[in-house]
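Retro notes, structure queue

What went well: the backlog is down to a handful. What didn't: a couple of records were mislabeled last round, so from now on we paste the full input next to the output in the thread. Example, using cellulase from Gymnopus androsaceus JB14:
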Amino acid sequence: MAEIYAEMPGAAEKLTRLYLGVFRTINSSSEKYPSSMEVVAIAAFAGAKILYAGVNESGGEFGVGGTPGTGLPGEFGTTYAFINKSTVDIWVDTNRINFFRVTLLMERMCPLATGLGRNFNETYFSEYEDAINYITITKGAYALIDPHNYMRYNDPSDQPFSGSVIGNTTDPTAATTEQFQEFWTELAGRFVDNPNVPTSLILKNDQAAVDGIRSTGAKQLILAPGNGFTGGHSWTQITGENDDPSSEWLFKLVDPLRNTAIDIHEYLDIDFSGSHNTCTQAGPSNLANLTSWLQEHNLKAVISEFGGSNDPTCLELVPQMLEYLAANDVYIGWTAWAAGPLWGTNSGCCGPEVGSLEPGQLSIDGGPNGYTTLWEAVIQQTIDIPNLKRSGTSSLS
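Corresponding output:
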């Protein structure tokens, strides 16, 4: 989703994600894990190739914005939902994509009464599992598991402005790194036999999550995000409240299978938030430092969030960025923000007029939404369909 995200039924919120379809993790304590940078080292491709191209399916995190203490657990199909199976059919059968980033909310998966960890709300999990299985088993695509939680586990109504980040040892009410590892160990274990389920982590507890995931025997791809909403343009810069540049520590993450990629968000509006109608940022120049860093450390990356409106500036700059990704072999995939069954005429990105990327829905003015005016207009044409990965465990190659 956009970094400024239109929470149903319309409140703007920022979000970061955690996924299991491709596992995504973060740990900033570089001195604790001092091994070399081969998080995702692999043999060089013969040529640049995008292996995964697709869309975010946002909706599992809906229904909690606004009033503290409300929205949990929520009502499936009304306040939250994961996918519309008929539109997943369109994406796979007509658009020929192979990659879906599917959001969830940790406070729904692990109720606050029992805490973050191994104790799941089995109803919520079964609903989520049904969505993941439809994408991966029925349709044969890849599904990235994405917890949308701002590095927090608490009352989600005002995240990221409520409570401490997971692993904050100065706050006794914060969820611990150990709990976060238990959560990922449990979740990864439940999908260990599904090769089409990679995972995306959130937080600066990436190493703990990677360790937990790999302890289950899971071999799937993991995505590891960085600081500052994991922006590619700011990868080598201090972000937030003097957070270290992601470039200074993330290459030290250790994955014994060397099947971890870097998770990047890159919106093209004036402040990189994905909240404005016009695009002013050039992806190639803004990603140049990240690209050099990936090359230096022999790493790969996935752009898991980007978007645009149907403004002419976006119709030019969005495909320009996607063509840049396809021309540089350090990038292996991307997912656009955002489709999902509950958007209606609301817009997940780039101004209220656009609508979502959900096929068959309209924009707020009753006209075509972003599926028609952005995806079909310019994004679809950039996809090298024959080279997309169609089988085998999610991986870097």
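Agreed that this is the format going forward. Reviewer comment attached to the example: Residues 1-46 have pLDDT under 50 and may be disordered.
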